[in-house]
Amino acid sequence: MKIAIVGTGYVGLVTGTCFAELGVDVTCVDTDASKIERLRNGIIPIYEPNLELLVEKNHKAGRLHFTTSLEEVLPEVEIVFSAVGTPPDEDGSADLRYVLEVARTIGRHIDRYILVVTKSTVPVGTAVKVRAAIQAELDKRGVQVPFDVASNPEFLKEGNAIEDFIRPDRVVVGTDSERAKDLMTRLYKPLLLNNFRVMFMDIPSAEMTKYAANAMLATRISFINDVANLCQAVGADVNMVRKGIGADSRIGNKFLYPGCGYGGSCFPKDIKALIRSARENGCRMEVLEAVERVNERQKGILYDKLALHFGGAEALRGKRIALWGLAFKPGTDDMREAPSLVLVSQLRGAGAEVVAYDPVAMDEARRRLGDAVSYASDAYGAVLDADALVLLTEWKEFRLPNWEVVRRAMRGNVVVDGRNIFDRNELRTLGFDYYGIGVL
Fold first, then answer.
1. Domains parsed from the chain with CATH numbers
2. Which residues are catalytic?
3. Phi, psi dihedral angles at 325 (to 5 degrees)
4. Cα–Cα distance between 439 and 217 in angstroms, integer?
5. For FRET with 108, which of 204, 226, 397, 410 sits at 20 to 30 Å CA-CA?
6. Nearest Cα residue to 124 out of 151, 87, 103
7. Residue 86 has pLDDT above 90, yes or no
8. pTM
C-alpha cells in the first residue's frame, strides 16, 4: 500500500515513519523545501527518542520518501493523511487554513478515487469543510472523481510517540463509507495481527474524541494542582493525598502529579479550541474554562515562591536564578506554552539573572529566548553562584544530583521543586531551603 502524509511536523513525521516501519510505502510532503532536503539527508526537525534512527533506516530501505509536491504523488497513493498544523487563531479557535489548502490541492489534481484522512487535531465539522473544499475544486474542473473523507486523530505522547504508535492503547477512525473503512482496516492490519482493535465510529465522534481525551487529561492536571495549593494552605501533603485518591480504581493514579502547569503543543491549544467550539454552538464548557484559568495561574507559582522567600518581587533584582529544564516535559525539545517561558519572563521582569540548562531543548531555548538568559553546558554549571535553583522539567538526569556538589557551587541555598521529584527531608538536612508544590 502507498500513502502520503502531508506535513512533516511532529505528528506527520512520526506517523509517516512508523507506517514505513510497518511496511507501508510512505511519501512525506511538506512545502518547506529546506526541511525536505534536510530530511533526505537524515536531519530531522524535532527531537523524539529513536525517531532519527527509524527515519534513516526506512529512507535507506526505500519505504520512506520526502517531497515538496503533493500533486506528483497523488496518482500513486491510495490514502492521503493531512497532518498539517492547526494553530490557535486569535479567538482561540483552530486555524484550518492549512488543512483546507491541502483539501483544495487534492481537489485540483485527483483523477481517481482517493481517501483523504485528517490526522491533525481539528474541531468537529472539519471533515464536512474538507469534503466541500475538495468538491468545490472538482466542480471548477467540471469533473466527477470519487473520494472519501475520514478522521484518524493521533494520540501520541511526545517523548514516547513511537511506542504509542506501534503499541497503541486505541486507534480511533471515523468513516462514513465501507470503502474507506476497508482501506483503513488494510492499513492498520499489522496492528490488528497483534490482537489490537481499531475503534471505528462516525466522523464527528472521532473528531470529538481527540479533544475530549486531551480535555480530560488537562482537567486532571488542573484538579490536582488546585488540590495541591489547598494542601499547602491547610498543612496537608499532596503526595499523600494523590496516593490516597489514586488507589481508588474509579480514579486511578495517572495525571495526578502536581506541578507548575501543563504546556506543549496539544493541551493549551485544544482546550482553547474546544471552549471556542462550544461557544460557537451555543454551549459553554464551564469546567474547561476553569481548567484553563487554573493552569495559567499555576505557571506563576514558582515565581511566587521565589518572591515570597526573598521578601518580595523587588528583592529578586540582581539575584541569580538557575533553571533545570526548559522543555514543557521530559523526552522532547518542545517549549510551546512551557512554564519555563512564563518563569523566565517574570524573573527577567523583576531584574533577576537567569541561567538555564536542559538536556535537549537548548537550541530551541536559544531560538525562543535569545540572550534573555545565560546557557550552561550542564546541570552543575547552571547552579554556579546561583542564589536559587528551580526545577521545571523532570528529566531523569535531574532526579539524583550530587547535592553536596550543588550546595558548594551555589551562592544561596534555595531549591524550588516544580515537579516534586526531590526528597525534601534530605535537602533540608543538607541545609537547603526547600519549596515544593502542595507540601510544607
1. 2-201 (3.40.50.720), 211-297 (3.40.50.720), 299-435 (3.40.50.720)
2. 266
3. 100, 135
4. 23
5. 204
6. 151
7. no
8. 0.89
